[in-house]
Amino acid sequence: MMEKVKTTCVYCGTGCQVYFKVKDGKIVDTKPVRDGFNPGHGKLCIKGWNLHEFIHHPDRLTEPMIRKNGKLEKVSWDEAINFVASKFKTIMEENPGNKKVIGCLSSAKCTNEENYVMQKFARAVLKTNSVDHCARLCHASTVVGLVAAFGSGAMTNSIDEIADSDVIYITGSNTNEQHPLIGARILEALHKGAKLVVADPRTIPLCELATDHGGIEMNQRPGTDVALMNGMMNVIINENLHDKEFIENHCENFDAFKEEILKMSPEKASEITGVPKEKIIEAARIIGNGKAVSLIYSMGITQHTTGVDNVKTCANLQMLCGNMGKWGTGVNPLRGQQNVQGACDLGALANVFSGYQKVIEADKREKMAKEWGINVNDMDDQIGLTVVEMMNAAHDGELKALYVMGENPMVSDPDINHVREGLKKTFLVVQDIFPTPTVELADVVLPAASFAETVGTFTSTERRIQMIRAAINPIPNTKLDWEIVGLIAKAMGYDGLIYSHPREIMDEINRTTPIYGGITWDRLLSDEKGLQWPCPDPQHPGTVYLHKDGKFSRGKGYFSAIPFKDPAELPDESYPLILSTGRILWHFHTGTMSRRSPTLHARAPEGYVEVSIEDANELKIVDGEKVKVKSRRGEIITKAKVTERVKKGIIFIPFHFKEAAANVLTNPALDPIAKIPEFKVCSAKIEKL
Ligand SMILES: Nc1nc2c(c(=O)[nH]1)N[C@H]1C(S)=C(S)[C@@H](COP(=O)(O)OP(=O)(O)OC[C@H]3O[C@@H](n4cnc5c(=O)[nH]c(N)nc54)[C@H](O)[C@@H]3O)O[C@H]1N2
Ligand SMILES: Nc1nc2c(c(=O)[nH]1)N[C@H]1C(S)=C(S)[C@@H](COP(=O)(O)OP(=O)(O)OC[C@H]3O[C@@H](n4cnc5c(=O)[nH]c(N)nc54)[C@H](O)[C@@H]3O)O[C@H]1N2
Ligand code: SF4
Ligand SMILES: [Mo]
What we know:
The chain is globular. Helix 2 (about 75-95) packs across helix 21, helix 8 packs across helix 12 (about 275-290) and helix 17 packs across helix 19. The chain has 25 helices and 28 strands. About 35% of the residues lie in helices and about 20% in strands. The protein folds into 4 domains: about 5-55, Single Sheet (N-terminal domain of TfIIb), CATH 2.20.25.90; about 65-140 and about 340-460 and about 475-530, Rossmann fold; about 140-335, Dimethylsulfoxide Reductase, domain 2 (3-Layer(aba) Sandwich); about 575-689, Barwin-like endoglucanases. The chain is an alpha/beta fold and about 700 residues long. A 7-stranded mixed beta sheet has the order 5-4-16-15-14-6-7, with helices on both faces. The structure holds ligand MGD (2 copies), iron/sulfur cluster and molybdenum atom. The site of iron/sulfur cluster has 14 residues, from helix 1 and helix 6.
């Protein structure tokens, strides 16, 4: 007999619901949930269909290890836990009052409960706010930009609403490949007659969909989105297509914003972006005349030194035509990892506790200290180090220890050569399910159970909290992430992280986190749709879309006047190409899971660099030829894929492949406020081998 266990997909942030088929203690198959609520409407993408394939892989880590005489050696759990605890204690004792000597990386792959536990461990036990996670490399600019504009940093509307939009502006999101089941909602809208406006430097599948359905595609130069959108808004204002009533009643700072917009004529925007002026004007008219316009974006907007500017510009555009606080509208950043929304919500960020309560505010610290049973005066009252800042501090010898739970910075962080030097100098603890290049550098390795072995909750991109259920017992000799953190805390003398079940952690989250106040374990168990935050009390039904009727979370919507700025590194004579990086349908991030899935591996077994036909001709390279790609930070060897997907002067490398890692090349320059690195633009060159 096969058992069927319902859970949530662990790849992207769409939140698709799946059944694991379990036989003799093994997960043997995955099927979509068709008989109940499912954000994917009964469908899955290829990653979802093959979700079970990595779980029982023989590479799973099952032995705690400590580096002895330069080599990782198997030890007992007790020895590993006690060793980590005593090292952390010693480092704290040797650096009294220094709150920036130990850092923690939490994980968007782990549950809400585990992220809450990790940030509590950093703050209550290690006494530091230096706890962060991959959201810093992803939507940090979204959180900062949308809080400034609206007062809340999340996707404003829900997935299903997209099907009812009559115009969709998509920029910097390769939705069909990266959020395939949200891509399906876009198709639904097109079939109902919606128009699509796509702005992406690459010719992605959405571009053809746009032009086939009477919409428009624009291939702007990477890093020029502010100029493009300001140019479009210039047309909207000059042609009187903006929503004066909405602006007057619900927004502020319009005049200063308008003054800036009037400087960016469509001619000037065309010069900066390389998009023909006529297209900018037409796109502006489609958006200006739309009734329910949804704006969708992702990494093409956020991963820039101007990430926050880009996000604020998206917010400006949607306020300008009154496309906020209504069904089918909004600013919709698609959150990437299946639980990156939750990891942010639960405080795995250097500046906020759970629910975005600021660590620099004394009353918030007092509230947490009381709940956690610690002395408020011992707490860190400053913002902690963020991901890239931790790597820099490690490099400078200031960060003495780093505890990584479920991240792989040796593949995912910018400028890997620099990261390696830093990590080698620190006491590095890595808790993962697979051996990774980061595990290879660890001083202590802690083998974790996977999501398939865990009970808990994930929060999807539409702020929906859904259950995950243990389909099997933890693989022998692995432990649950929240348990491991609790054991280290206990060994350091703190009992406040010992729980008997994740529901106890959720109870604590309900008490400390107003936006999750009413998201109780019992409600989640009984309501198959989960709940969408904000949900402040147990009677609250949850929130489908934010800022209803123009009532913004911050009061009035704030228009920012944003001038265009260049990316940090532009092509020059020695590095004449723009390198962009990102993803493909078949693989997920650093490939630890998807590359161990035989079906996915077969589709894309190796890395490559996309090169335009013109550049390939000039460099005399042919499709499939191995080439060297170089930047100021390093070089890799990979296969050339000669394609119409990229324009002359631009190359693109998917960052999934550790043996040809894009991040050897990328620029660690940061957005000054959000501290997100510029993964989407640096200069590079290609050499024939
Ligand atoms: N298959 C798969 N799906 C995933 C993931 C995965 O690894 N694999 N990862 C998940 C995660 S964590 C995330 S964050 C999301 C990311 O999802 P996406 O953001 O959709 O993915 P990316 O490939 O990083 O980049 C998106 C698009 O930005 C464009 N772009 C590049 N530069 C610019 C620019 O300057 N301006 C604009 N407007 N666009 C630009 C690229 O051409 C690309 O089409 O995907 C999630 N889903
Ligand atoms: N060049 C370039 N670099 C990028 C990006 C880009 O577009 N271009 N995008 C950035 C973005 S948006 C993101 S989100 C990051 C992602 O960066 P990372 O989060 O570092 O990448 P992942 O591969 O998702 O790493 C997750 C790790 O968690 C492990 N894991 C999985 N499940 C569990 C579990 O249950 N418990 C534990 N303890 N571990 C588990 C996996 O094996 C893996 O090693 O990459 C960033 N880096
Ligand atoms: S769309 Fe995302 S959540 Fe849905 S099956 Fe695919 S990877 Fe999983
Ligand atoms: Mo991401």
